[in-house]
Design goal:
The protein is an alpha+beta fold. Helices cover 52% and strands 14% of the residues. It contains 6 helices and 7 strands. Strands 1-2-4-3 form a 4-stranded antiparallel sheet. The chain has a 3-stranded antiparallel sheet with strand order 5-7-6. A hairpin with a 7-residue loop joins strand 6 and strand 7. The longest helix has 35 residues. The protein starts with 9 loop residues before the first strand and ends with a helix.
Length: 162
Protein backbone atom coordinates (compact mmCIF):
# COMPACT_ATOMS: atom_id res chain seq x y z
CA UNK A 1 0.00 0.00 0.00
CA UNK A 2 1.37 3.35 -0.90
CA UNK A 3 0.95 6.34 1.32
CA UNK A 4 -1.50 8.75 -0.29
CA UNK A 5 -0.88 12.36 0.62
CA UNK A 6 -3.79 14.74 0.51
CA UNK A 7 -3.09 17.78 -1.65
CA UNK A 8 -2.81 21.07 0.21
CA UNK A 9 -2.92 19.32 3.58
CA UNK A 10 0.03 21.31 4.90
CA UNK A 11 -0.04 24.86 3.67
CA UNK A 12 2.26 26.73 5.98
CA UNK A 13 1.15 25.93 9.50
CA UNK A 14 -2.43 24.96 8.58
CA UNK A 15 -3.30 21.31 9.15
CA UNK A 16 -6.49 19.87 7.74
CA UNK A 17 -8.38 16.85 9.03
CA UNK A 18 -11.06 14.78 7.37
CA UNK A 19 -14.64 14.77 8.66
CA UNK A 20 -14.17 11.45 10.47
CA UNK A 21 -11.09 12.70 12.32
CA UNK A 22 -12.80 16.00 13.16
CA UNK A 23 -15.76 14.08 14.57
CA UNK A 24 -13.40 12.00 16.73
CA UNK A 25 -11.73 15.16 18.03
CA UNK A 26 -15.12 16.70 18.85
CA UNK A 27 -16.44 13.50 20.41
CA UNK A 28 -19.44 13.21 18.08
CA UNK A 29 -20.50 10.88 15.30
CA UNK A 30 -19.44 11.76 11.76
CA UNK A 31 -23.09 12.08 10.72
CA UNK A 32 -23.68 14.59 13.52
CA UNK A 33 -20.76 16.67 12.29
CA UNK A 34 -22.13 16.60 8.75
CA UNK A 35 -25.58 17.58 10.09
CA UNK A 36 -23.98 20.59 11.80
CA UNK A 37 -22.61 21.59 8.38
CA UNK A 38 -26.08 22.06 6.90
CA UNK A 39 -27.37 24.87 9.16
CA UNK A 40 -23.86 26.40 9.16
CA UNK A 41 -23.36 25.59 12.82
CA UNK A 42 -19.92 24.24 11.98
CA UNK A 43 -19.34 24.37 8.20
CA UNK A 44 -16.33 22.77 6.55
CA UNK A 45 -13.53 24.97 5.30
CA UNK A 46 -14.50 24.61 1.66
CA UNK A 47 -11.93 21.98 0.78
CA UNK A 48 -12.47 18.42 -0.27
CA UNK A 49 -10.16 15.44 -0.07
CA UNK A 50 -9.53 13.41 -3.26
CA UNK A 51 -12.23 10.95 -2.16
CA UNK A 52 -14.79 13.78 -1.76
CA UNK A 53 -14.59 13.88 2.05
CA UNK A 54 -14.90 17.33 3.64
CA UNK A 55 -11.80 18.86 5.23
CA UNK A 56 -11.68 20.98 8.36
CA UNK A 57 -8.89 23.11 9.79
CA UNK A 58 -7.53 21.24 12.80
CA UNK A 59 -7.07 24.46 14.79
CA UNK A 60 -10.69 25.42 14.12
CA UNK A 61 -11.90 21.98 15.21
CA UNK A 62 -9.92 22.21 18.45
CA UNK A 63 -11.17 25.74 19.21
CA UNK A 64 -14.77 24.58 18.57
CA UNK A 65 -14.17 21.64 20.91
CA UNK A 66 -13.03 24.05 23.64
CA UNK A 67 -16.12 26.17 22.98
CA UNK A 68 -18.39 23.10 23.29
CA UNK A 69 -16.71 22.12 26.57
CA UNK A 70 -17.21 25.64 27.95
CA UNK A 71 -20.90 25.49 26.98
CA UNK A 72 -21.24 22.11 28.75
CA UNK A 73 -19.52 23.45 31.88
CA UNK A 74 -21.76 26.53 31.87
CA UNK A 75 -24.84 24.32 31.51
CA UNK A 76 -23.74 22.11 34.44
CA UNK A 77 -22.97 25.22 36.51
CA UNK A 78 -26.45 26.61 35.79
CA UNK A 79 -28.05 23.30 36.81
CA UNK A 80 -26.00 23.21 40.03
CA UNK A 81 -26.85 26.85 40.73
CA UNK A 82 -30.56 26.18 40.21
CA UNK A 83 -30.34 23.14 42.48
CA UNK A 84 -28.57 25.01 45.26
CA UNK A 85 -30.89 28.01 44.92
CA UNK A 86 -33.90 25.72 45.21
CA UNK A 87 -32.28 23.99 48.19
CA UNK A 88 -31.55 27.26 49.96
CA UNK A 89 -35.09 28.53 49.33
CA UNK A 90 -36.49 25.36 50.86
CA UNK A 91 -34.25 25.65 53.91
CA UNK A 92 -35.20 29.33 54.40
CA UNK A 93 -38.94 28.73 54.09
CA UNK A 94 -40.94 27.89 57.20
CA UNK A 95 -41.73 24.22 57.76
CA UNK A 96 -44.72 23.13 55.77
CA UNK A 97 -46.38 19.97 54.56
CA UNK A 98 -44.14 20.06 51.49
CA UNK A 99 -40.86 19.84 53.42
CA UNK A 100 -42.18 17.42 56.03
CA UNK A 101 -45.17 15.64 54.49
CA UNK A 102 -47.73 13.93 56.69
CA UNK A 103 -48.03 11.03 54.23
CA UNK A 104 -45.19 9.31 52.40
CA UNK A 105 -45.09 7.03 49.38
CA UNK A 106 -43.95 3.48 50.00
CA UNK A 107 -40.51 4.13 48.55
CA UNK A 108 -40.05 7.21 50.77
CA UNK A 109 -41.36 5.25 53.77
CA UNK A 110 -38.91 2.45 53.02
CA UNK A 111 -36.04 4.97 53.00
CA UNK A 112 -37.40 6.55 56.20
CA UNK A 113 -37.39 3.16 57.94
CA UNK A 114 -34.14 2.10 56.23
CA UNK A 115 -35.51 -1.33 55.26
CA UNK A 116 -35.46 -3.42 52.10
CA UNK A 117 -38.18 -3.51 49.46
CA UNK A 118 -39.06 -7.09 50.48
CA UNK A 119 -39.40 -6.18 54.16
CA UNK A 120 -41.60 -3.19 53.27
CA UNK A 121 -43.85 -5.37 51.13
CA UNK A 122 -44.17 -7.87 53.98
CA UNK A 123 -45.11 -5.14 56.49
CA UNK A 124 -47.75 -3.76 54.11
CA UNK A 125 -49.22 -7.17 53.20
CA UNK A 126 -49.41 -8.26 56.85
CA UNK A 127 -51.20 -5.03 57.80
CA UNK A 128 -48.50 -3.93 60.24
CA UNK A 129 -48.29 -0.62 58.40
CA UNK A 130 -51.71 0.69 57.31
CA UNK A 131 -51.87 2.47 53.96
CA UNK A 132 -54.29 4.25 51.68
CA UNK A 133 -54.20 4.82 47.93
CA UNK A 134 -53.27 8.19 46.54
CA UNK A 135 -56.40 9.98 45.26
CA UNK A 136 -54.41 11.39 42.34
CA UNK A 137 -52.83 8.09 41.28
CA UNK A 138 -54.44 4.82 42.34
CA UNK A 139 -51.17 2.91 41.77
CA UNK A 140 -49.42 4.80 44.58
CA UNK A 141 -49.87 3.80 48.22
CA UNK A 142 -49.47 6.38 50.95
CA UNK A 143 -48.38 5.73 54.53
CA UNK A 144 -48.79 8.13 57.48
CA UNK A 145 -45.54 9.40 58.93
CA UNK A 146 -46.95 9.02 62.45
CA UNK A 147 -47.49 5.27 61.84
CA UNK A 148 -43.88 4.93 60.76
CA UNK A 149 -42.63 6.83 63.81
CA UNK A 150 -44.72 4.58 66.09
CA UNK A 151 -43.24 1.52 64.41
CA UNK A 152 -39.73 2.89 64.89
CA UNK A 153 -40.39 3.67 68.58
CA UNK A 154 -41.80 0.16 69.17
CA UNK A 155 -38.75 -1.33 67.46
CA UNK A 156 -36.38 0.81 69.54
CA UNK A 157 -38.22 -0.10 72.77
CA UNK A 158 -38.14 -3.83 71.99
CA UNK A 159 -34.42 -3.65 71.22
CA UNK A 160 -33.74 -1.92 74.53
CA UNK A 161 -35.42 -4.69 76.54
CA UNK A 162 -33.92 -7.56 74.55
Amino acid sequence: MEDTELPNMNEGEELYVRAGEAALLLGVYRDTLLDWDRPYKFPCDGRLAPNGDRLYLRSRVLSYKAELEQMKKAKVARKNEDYYNEDSQISKSPPSTLTCPEKLTLSDARKFLDISFTKMTMLINQGIIPYETNPLDSRVKLVKRSDLEKLLSKNAASQRYS
